[in-house]
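To illustrate the input format used throughout this study, we show a single complete record. The first block contains the structure-token representation of the backbone; no residue identities are included at this stage. The design step must infer an amino acid for every position from geometry alone.
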């Protein structure tokens, strides 16, 4: 078994792999890199990950970035847990979720809402970009809510898609969406997942409350 390290920022998308490592009972070192304090922009962290993004996973000397790749690497540490799905079709569905959540919901929607400077240098356009980002979040959450008709996003067991969806639920609370009133399925899903010991341990380590807003 390799030596495992996870670099995380409290409440960020790194909470998902943090939960998954707990879920499989993996011993690992959790290294706090608070985004709000700019810790991901330091020279030391940039040497680790020139993308200046979290999470980062290290298996011995191999450094892995990007959430779908990180969750795949974690699933391979304990394949009996089927974190990427237990059948070929389920694996495709988990990847389908992860790619859309990371690319569209996280990168495009929340990227526009929180980081409009990534899309233009013209500051006069920032309000329009952030407004579009908020609308895209709402549209994506409506789609998520329609899909979450059972306790898990894929199949009958926990997968990496569930962990990422829980993070995004917290973010919805954080930006002031009426999650409970507008997204009832998504809310039931998140509340059910919040009882899972692996998530509770990750939240305790990160100094968070189970469903408190993401500290933007």
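Output of the design step:
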């Amino acid at each position: 078994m390799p030596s495992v390290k996870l670099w995380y920022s409290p409440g960020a998308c790194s909470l998902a792999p943090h939960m998954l490592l707990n879920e499989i009972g993996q011993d690992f070192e959790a290294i706090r890199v608070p985004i709000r304090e700019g810790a991901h922009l330091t020279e030391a962290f940039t040497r680790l990950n020139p993308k200046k993004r979290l999470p980062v996973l290290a298996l011995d000397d191999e450094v892995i970035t990007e959430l779908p790749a990180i969750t795949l690497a974690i699933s391979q540490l304990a394949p009996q847990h089927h974190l990427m799905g237990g059948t070929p079709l389920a694996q495709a569905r988990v990847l389908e979720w992860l790619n859309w959540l990371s690319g569209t919901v996280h990168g495009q929607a929340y990227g526009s809402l929180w980081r409009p400077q990534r899309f233009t240098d013209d500051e006069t356009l920032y309000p329009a970009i952030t407004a579009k980002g908020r609308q895209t979040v709402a549209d994506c959450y409506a789609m998520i809510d329609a899909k979450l008709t059972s306790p898990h996003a894929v199949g009958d067991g926990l997968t990496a898609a569930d962990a990422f969806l829980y993070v995004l639920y917290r973010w919805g609370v954080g930006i002031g969406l009426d999650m409970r009133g507008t997204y009832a399925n998504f809310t039931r899903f998140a509340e059910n997942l919040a009882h899972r010991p692996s998530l509770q341990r990750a939240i305790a380590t990160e100094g968070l409350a189970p469903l408190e807003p993401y500290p933007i």
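Structural context for interpreting the output: The chain has a mean pLDDT of 95. The CA atoms of residues 142 and 182 lie 8 Å apart.
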